[in-house]
Design brief:
The complex is a heterodimer of chains A (323) and B (451). With 323 residues, chain A is mainly alpha-helical. Chain A has two domains: 17-153 and 185-216, no CATH class; 218-313, no CATH class. Chain A is 57% helix and 1% strand. Chain A has 14 helices and one strand; from the N terminus they run E-H-H-H-H-H-H-H-H-H-H-H-H-H-H. Residues 145-162 of chain A have low confidence and may be disordered. The mean pLDDT of chain B is 91. Chain B has four domains: 29-110, OB fold (Dihydrolipoamide Acetyltransferase, E2P), CATH 2.40.50; 119-283, NADH-ubiquinone oxidoreductase 51kDa subunit (Rossmann fold); 288-367, Ubiquitin-like (UB roll), CATH 3.10.20.600; 379-450, no CATH class. In chain B, the strands form four sheets. In chain B, strands 1-14-13-17-15-16 form a six-stranded mixed β-sheet, sandwiched between helices. A four-stranded antiparallel β-sheet of chain B has the order 2-8-7-4, with no helix packed on it. In chain B, strands 11-10-9-12 form a four-stranded parallel β-sheet, with helices on both faces. In chain B, helix 5 (206-220) links the parallel strand 10 (196-202) and strand 11. Classes of the chains: A mainly alpha (323), B alpha/beta (451). The interface between A and B is large, with 41 and 71 residues.
């Protein structure tokens, strides 16, 4: 008789890494649908380009580095999706490929791949693009909101798509107050305004968040502290805090980028500190900086601080620890 | 009743209590038993029989050398076939007495009820009985009964949580012998002058709670009885039965890191341990038999058995129904529960005093998932009842980062297995953290030899 030997425990929970990743992808689907509905086929094109190029770069990288293939863990798909979600709908289609390259090759695989990267790959890709191509990364079109145009795959641009300022840019111009001509709260909630592909519809994002919470994939410590700090800071500076919450990338950043496992602290108090830090930096950039939006810089900056945050938030064990 | 305080963390594995309602089978047909001289935490006993000696049931065959240690008794009557060294599954070498049973189970004349008048005689008697904690740790019980300087037990906590999956041995103990359990609790309270006892039973075993409550109701009406024995129903969560968690759940006190239950004035005993005490006081039969849960997908008939200590494991398995034909070529045999038990690397090990279960996993159940990379999902942190950071400890242990391991409190790990259970990357966190503890010990030894 053959005896199998292994260390305890001898039973394991069914959940595995691909399942967690699949849950995140499922949670992003509502926002994906809204972006396709609002921006039409271009949204779908950009998403396909980022996702497929992310998978190709991941595959090639592992091949060249002679490592085990890792595309089946689905993390490259998430990176591709999140990168697309942070791009404007008018971006030339070759640019997302550069973004994918930065995300997968430079930010992720060169650091050792899944679980080893220091900064959020998708955000690294986005930041490189917005620094390299500031004009293209800030050309916003108003969503047509017409499903008929969304599914007509003609390469001709819709004539009623006017390049418009995002609500956050308008807020920035209006010194933090709601002015005439700005989308109202309901428009912000459902996504009828200019912005990056995935960030526009708060409602769609929140549906995904509810799913992730129900599946216990993310916790609320980071997102809530992140959002709370931005809103408090905005209110203290005389800005409209609700507008700060609903416009720009705050919601997608807090719930989907700042909850990335690898690049954020493990400990609960670390997660809160991380959220507070993100909120402070994002609010500072939004209110006093030269750019209307700062959530991506805030998160990447805090990503770098993550090991240090963990070191100062080692939890006290049950029983108080030994002297 | 005051509000109970529960610990954080823990996991919810499938309880798999398949053997709850099968009466315990008493198995005796073992031609040979192999009794190791070390079945407790502490220095091993020296064997006082030699090849060819005749021994009787309950006769001492292993004598304690240094404290804390308890004697080893023969579980059968017959002839000593050999006394030899073996490598146990723990990796340590241990002296084993192999005894051929004559099948008569004739008791030794010295087996008679102990005469006890006071606390010291009680402790002495429990030492002579060979009793160790039957819940799975195997620490000599008598040594637990003496609180440290300046401490006094004010609460006896009786562990009937049975929180490991599969195991129902303690549940059967409650259902079959509630009277002896209450009697044992009262004896301990009487001799050690402990005013309060609390029994913890998990909510998914209401029958156990019911029979114990019924028994408590009965003794309430006997003269001079202790009425301060309480029964608490605990939420179903693993590791509810771990000492630190149980004491916290039942008394709200936290055992300090590196400390023991005595530091918070609590004595913790397993239900099977208190039941043994009651039986021993009445009969004087030392610890020579053990109730085991036999379960797992490869077994033909999962059940509870009562077997002599030293019974060879393959014989126990076949006497209890055997292994399914389709699983015969490859199985995983686990001594103890599925969360903390030891997988045997040799089938000829024997039943020892403190393992509560013997699990035989078939091919599918025994499959070892491949280890993936840590994605830092923090599930292990949420699951850890000790509030440690298993993911970081894992990394540090693999890098032999002694300083980091100490900083992250590696020695507080109780090795309950919750972290590895929930890990989506299927990492061997417990194994790695155990290695981390060894690295610290080795570094200490190196330090000491240098000085």
């Amino acid at each position: 008789m053959n005896l199998k030997v292994s260390a305890s425990p001898h039973i394991r929970d069914k959940a595995d890494t691909p399942r967690l990743m699949r849950d995140v992808i499922i949670a992003l689907v509502p926002a994906l649908l809204v972006s396709v509905y609002m921006f039409g086929y271009r949204a779908l094109l950009i998403i396909s380009v980022t996702v497929s190029s992310a998978i190709v770069f991941e595959f090639a990288c592992r091949k060249i580095m002679k490592r085990n293939q890792s595309i089946s863990d689905l993390s490259a798909v998430i990176t591709g999706l999140l990168l697309a979600f942070s791009l404007p709908p008018e971006i030339p289609l070759w640019m997302p490929v550069i973004g994918s390259f930065t995300a997968i090759v430079a930010a992720k695989q060169l650091f050792g791949g899944l679980g080893q990267n220091i900064v959020n790959p998708a955000l690294a890709g986005r930041i490189v693009l917005s620094i390299s191509y500031p004009a293209e990364m800030a050309s916003w079109s108003l969503p047509s909101g017409r499903p008929s145009s969304a599914f007509s795959f003609s390469p001709v641009f819709e004539t009623d798509m006017i390049t418009r300022a995002t609500p956050l840019q308008m807020l920035y111009a209006g010194e933090g107050q709601m002015t005439v001509g700005m989308p109202d709260y309901l428009d912000l909630l459902i996504g009828k305004h200019a912005g990056s592909l995935g960030e526009i519809s708060i409602a769609a994002l929140l549906i995904g968040v509810i799913y992730l919470l129900a599946r216990k994939v993310i916790s609320l410590w980071t997102p809530l502290s992140f959002i709370a700090v931005v809103m408090i800071f905005a209110a203290l500076s005389g800005h409209n805090p609700i507008y700060h919450l609903l416009s720009g990338g705050l919601v997608i950043a807090a719930f989907f980028f700042a909850t990335d496992y690898t690049t954020t602290p493990l400990t609960r108090s670390g997660k809160v500190l991380f959220g507070i830090g993100c909120g402070l930096i994002a609010a500072l950039i939004r209110i006093f900086g030269s750019q209307p939006e700062g959530v991506s810089y805030a998160i990447v900056f805090m990503n770098i601080l993550t090991p240090h945050i963990e070191r100062i938030t080692i939890p006290l064990p049950f029983g108080g620890g030994r002297k | 009743m005051f509000k109970l305080d529960y610990f954080s963390g823990g996991v919810y594995p499938n309880p798999n209590k398949n053997t709850l309602f099968y009466p315990t089978k008493r198995l005796n047909q073992f031609p040979v038993v192999r009794i190791p001289m070390s079945m407790h935490i502490g220095p091993p006993c020296s064997c006082i029989v030699k090849k060819g000696d005749q021994v009787l049931v309950g006769q001492m065959i292993g004598e304690p050398t240094k404290e804390p240690s308890v004697p080893v008794h023969s579980s059968v009557s017959g002839t000593v076939r050999s006394v030899h060294k073996e490598v146990a599954s723990s990796g340590r070498s241990v002296v084993v007495a192999e005894i051929e049973s004559d099948g008569h189970f004739t008791f030794h004349p010295d087996v008679k009820p102990p005469v006890i008048h006071n606390r010291n005689e009680f402790i002495r008697a429990l030492r002579d009985s060979g009793l160790v904690g039957l819940g799975g740790l195997g620490y000599p019980t008598y040594a637990k009964l003496q609180p440290k300087e300046g401490r006094k037990f004010d609460t006896l906590v009786v562990n009937a949580a049975d929180s490991e999956p599969y195991i129902t041995a303690d549940f059967r103990q409650c259902v079959d012998h509630p009277d002896e359990i209450i009697d044992g609790i009262r004896a301990v309270m009487r001799y050690l002058d402990i005013p309060v006892a609390r029994i913890g039973v998990e909510k998914n075993k209401p029958q156990a709670a019911d029979v114990l409550l019924y028994e408590l109701e009965k003794v309430k009406h006997t003269a001079g009885a202790h009425t301060s024995i309480y029964l608490d129903r605990l939420p179903l969560i693993y590791p509810q039965g771990a000492e630190k968690m149980l004491v916290y759940s039942l008394t709200g006190r936290k055992i300090p890191s590196g400390g023991e239950s005595g530091d918070v004035n609590v004595l913790v005993l397993n239900v099977s341990t208190v039941r043994f005490i009651s039986k021993y006081l009445k009969t004087g039969i030392p610890l020579i038999r053990r109730r085991l849960t036999l379960d797992g997908s490869a077994l033909r008939t999962p059940c509870n058995v009562n077997v002599p200590i030293g019974a060879p494991i393959p014989d126990v398995i076949s006497a209890a129904g055997g292994i399914l034909d389709e699983e015969k070529d490859s199985v995983k045999i686990i001594l103890g529960g599925s969360m903390m038990g030891v997988a045997l690397d040799r089938a000829d090990a024997s039943v020892i005093k403190y393992y509560r279960a013997l699990l035989v996993f078939g091919k599918k159940e025994a499959e070892v998932p491949p280890e993936a990379v840590c994605i830092r999902c923090a599930r292990c942190l949420k699951a850890c009842p000790m509030k440690l950071v298993p993911a970081t400890l894992d990394k540090m242990a693999r890098h032999k980062d002694i300083e980091g391991l100490e900083q992250y409190h590696v020695r507080d790990c109780i090795e309950c297995g919750c972290c590895a259970y929930v890990c989506p990357a299927k990492r061997y966190l417990v194994q790695s953290i155990r290695n981390g503890k060894t690295h610290i010990k080795q570094a200490r030894i190196k330090e000491e030899t240098r000085q």
